[in-house]
Amino acid sequence: MVQGAETATATAARRRTARGKEPAITREELLRAYRDMLLIRRFEEKAGQLYGMGLIGGFCHLYIGQEAVVVGMQMCIKPGDQVITSYRDHGHMLACGMDPRGVMAELTGRIGGYSKGKGGSMHMFSIEKGFYGGHGIVGAQVSLGTGLAFANWYRGNDHVCLTYFGEGASNQGQVYESFNLAALFKLPVVYIIENNKYGMGTSVERASASKDLSKNGAPWGIPGEQVDGMDVIAVKEAGERAVAYCRAGNGPYLLEMKTYRYRGHSMSDPAKYRTREEVQRMREQRDCIETARKRLLEMGLDEAALKKVDDEVKAIVQDAADFAQASPEPPESELWTDVLVEEEGR
Amino acid sequence: MAGTQILMPALSPTMTEGKLARWLKKEGDTVKPGDVIAEIETDKATMEVEAVDEGVLTRILVPEGTEGVAVNAPIAELNGGGGGGGGSAAPAADRAPAAPATPAAPAEARPAPAAPAARAAAPRAPEERAAAPEKDWGPTRPLTVREALRDAMAAEMRADDRVFLMGEEVAQYQGAYKVSQGLLDEFGPRRVIDTPISEHGFTGLAVGAAFAGLRPIVEFMTFNFSMQAIDQIINSAAKTHYMSGGQVRCPIVFRGPNGAAARVAAQHSQDFSSWYAHCPGLKVVAPWSSADAKGLLRAAIRDPNPVVFLEHEILYGQTFECPIAEDFVLPIGKAKVEREGRDVTLVAHSIAVGLAMQAAEELARAGIEAEVINLRTLRPLDIATVVRSVRKTNRLVTVEEGWPFAGIGAEVAMQVIEHAFDWLDAPPVRIAGRDVPMPYAANLEKLALPNAAEVVEAAKRVTYRA
């Protein structure tokens, strides 16, 4: 189980909601979130399946279990804001509205993929959708995301950058260099630690002397919160506070999302570091999609409406899988393209 | 609904077959997505296999205990409630690994692409035609390299608001080596930005800003400190354009003094020419004169790619004639013949061009006419200019300050052998820094660096005049 998931902050947020100043989320919003989380879940299951069939190679880090984090945060931003993350990135791309076909075809290494098959699972981008990768070096995206936020500051606009990283990356030195720079220049960046408890096979307790990662920005005056990352409503509430703070020019904000991945770190992960019972307990008791589903039924939605969403999602994923298998491999000429921008300087 | 087949899954990038160790469901059982249905032994571990689709397990096709089951072979049939496509199973967690888990190397998974076809599009041999003469930029005036660099940045910052300078001590202190003198006054703190001592952090920040369309100039107080940030320079700046299929650009300049300073010992005296020139996705420029510095830095700032711009502290105070034309700029990727000669080709970059020029004068007094090529750019390397010269002189001496092993001289010599082997009348000779960390003691430091006398000696050797 996620120790400390019921943190003071998350509980306080829920209390505020219970007192009911304003509804934390409308039924339409929650249904949309349910649909987006389900799309990620089904997409990732399909990716695992294609991997099993040998159609996807190399590393493949699935997001199953953590869907509420990225879907909740995405509800807090607007077009023109930026998103950047690590190598566990399929969920972030789908949440940004990137085409599932292009993402799946990149996983299969085909020309129809977002990077024409040259990036793979960990390296996809869509500037149009505000998604800046997809980065394979643990922690590198934290400095890069700080730079995306710097560009907003430089241009004097009110856009923010959501910069995601794992609790494992939170031990990298450049994370703290970035915290210092962002606080010094008051950059509009929301740092989101997706604490899924395990950096590959090393539990957070064995890796981090800091017991409350939301306080890791405190020396630089960066406000932080721990959030129940298995609850999309709690994520959205905290995300709105963080984004509003950054948009107003106050500088960076830190959210520690207490979450959990059900699958291995990558595909060949024998998972000796945790018990099957621990995983099962999270799936049965804390699953973000099941929680949203129950809540929607309580809000008066009927099973038929949910079934319709399930069917729609299933069709999208199947279509993406079909496309990813039908799209050809990149032509051999692609080996030599995109090394440099072949253009005269400005 | 028709049944779907459950296929033998690949559980690692390298697995081609495995042993079906145990069935945890039997025929007639109902399975849900996520249920563990079987255990499979691979060369690495015993893994559990989860069902992907929902349905009733109608038939087990491969009994437990079967070894050598090929990936993608049907192992069971499912009479599905869920529908959907071809049902494979997904790898899950193991219970008793046979060996410690290690992440498998993805590179092994696929055969290498067919080399001959792929090579067809590779960079071509140097062109045979004569070089276009360098444009005449008109009147010149004396200018130090330091002033030339500052003027280049100022001109580009005036022309384009996206250009900004960041680094340690670049603003209020006016530059650790005074290269950015006056820029804060003209452009203000938004565009001339002092950073804390955080090379890794501010380099990553600048690369992110370039992804977002700005045009950062990152000053490293010296290139020695770029090693703190080299992951961001190579893995983020140089590779992202390729990894994004051409979508993301990184127009950025990394600049600062490179190479040996004076009496600062090994950690502060190192030449990074061959380090950066090794990497596709970067352009690497190493100017010598004031004109090189000004013309090439302007081109680097305008370039849509990441450019590593290697200056030299010892050259900062040296004065050269530099064109005064407002629009003066030099092309990246073109070498310059600094001095024409028929007897031997001396190829150099950065401060070593000075050594080569000194040597050429001395050689002239001995009746040997050396042609001196200032490479100016190390990547892309203008090998055509070098080859053209060697076909005339039939002799090659390379001169550089960096270490000899896998250095720029090694690359130049190899390319000359590839393109002009039959024109060579003597084995090429390389003059380089000694293969040791830079010592502090004045006498040892002098011994560690190349000098003009060595170049003279080498030139005499290859012309058989020694």
UniProtKB/TrEMBL annotation, chain A:
<comment type="subunit">
    <text>Heterodimer of an alpha and a beta chain.</text>
</comment>
<dbReference type="Pfam" id="PF00676">
    <property type="entry name" value="E1_dh"/>
</dbReference>
<keyword id="KW-0560">Oxidoreductase</keyword>
<dbReference type="InterPro" id="IPR029061">
    <property type="entry name" value="THDP-binding"/>
</dbReference>
<dbReference type="InterPro" id="IPR017597">
    <property type="entry name" value="Pyrv_DH_E1_asu_subgrp-y"/>
</dbReference>
<feature type="region of interest" description="Disordered">
    <location>
        <begin position="322"/>
        <end position="346"/>
    </location>
</feature>
<protein>
    <recommendedName>
        <fullName>Pyruvate dehydrogenase E1 component subunit alpha</fullName>
        <ecNumber>1.2.4.1</ecNumber>
    </recommendedName>
</protein>
<dbReference type="InterPro" id="IPR050642">
    <property type="entry name" value="PDH_E1_Alpha_Subunit"/>
</dbReference>
<dbReference type="InterPro" id="IPR001017">
    <property type="entry name" value="DH_E1"/>
</dbReference>
<keyword id="KW-0670">Pyruvate</keyword>
<feature type="domain" description="Dehydrogenase E1 component">
    <location>
        <begin position="36"/>
        <end position="331"/>
    </location>
</feature>
<keyword id="KW-0786">Thiamine pyrophosphate</keyword>
<comment type="function">
    <text>The pyruvate dehydrogenase complex catalyzes the overall conversion of pyruvate to acetyl-CoA and CO(2). It contains multiple copies of three enzymatic components: pyruvate dehydrogenase (E1), dihydrolipoamide acetyltransferase (E2) and lipoamide dehydrogenase (E3).</text>
</comment>
<feature type="region of interest" description="Disordered">
    <location>
        <begin position="1"/>
        <end position="22"/>
    </location>
</feature>
From TrEMBL, chain B:
<keyword id="KW-0450">Lipoyl</keyword>
<comment type="function">
    <text>The pyruvate dehydrogenase complex catalyzes the overall conversion of pyruvate to acetyl-CoA and CO2.</text>
</comment>
<dbReference type="Pfam" id="PF02779">
    <property type="entry name" value="Transket_pyr"/>
</dbReference>
<feature type="compositionally biased region" description="Low complexity">
    <location>
        <begin position="89"/>
        <end position="124"/>
    </location>
</feature>
<dbReference type="InterPro" id="IPR027110">
    <property type="entry name" value="PDHB_mito-type"/>
</dbReference>
<dbReference type="InterPro" id="IPR033248">
    <property type="entry name" value="Transketolase_C"/>
</dbReference>
<dbReference type="InterPro" id="IPR009014">
    <property type="entry name" value="Transketo_C/PFOR_II"/>
</dbReference>
<keyword id="KW-0786">Thiamine pyrophosphate</keyword>
<dbReference type="InterPro" id="IPR029061">
    <property type="entry name" value="THDP-binding"/>
</dbReference>
<comment type="subunit">
    <text>Heterodimer of an alpha and a beta chain.</text>
</comment>
<dbReference type="Pfam" id="PF02780">
    <property type="entry name" value="Transketolase_C"/>
</dbReference>
<feature type="region of interest" description="Disordered">
    <location>
        <begin position="82"/>
        <end position="140"/>
    </location>
</feature>
<feature type="compositionally biased region" description="Basic and acidic residues">
    <location>
        <begin position="125"/>
        <end position="138"/>
    </location>
</feature>
<feature type="domain" description="Lipoyl-binding">
    <location>
        <begin position="3"/>
        <end position="79"/>
    </location>
</feature>
<dbReference type="Pfam" id="PF00364">
    <property type="entry name" value="Biotin_lipoyl"/>
</dbReference>
<dbReference type="InterPro" id="IPR011053">
    <property type="entry name" value="Single_hybrid_motif"/>
</dbReference>
<dbReference type="InterPro" id="IPR003016">
    <property type="entry name" value="2-oxoA_DH_lipoyl-BS"/>
</dbReference>
<protein>
    <recommendedName>
        <fullName>Pyruvate dehydrogenase E1 component subunit beta</fullName>
        <ecNumber>1.2.4.1</ecNumber>
    </recommendedName>
</protein>
<keyword id="KW-0670">Pyruvate</keyword>
<keyword id="KW-0560">Oxidoreductase</keyword>
<dbReference type="InterPro" id="IPR005475">
    <property type="entry name" value="Transketolase-like_Pyr-bd"/>
</dbReference>
<dbReference type="GO" id="GO:0004739">
    <property type="term" value="F:pyruvate dehydrogenase (acetyl-transferring) activity"/>
</dbReference>
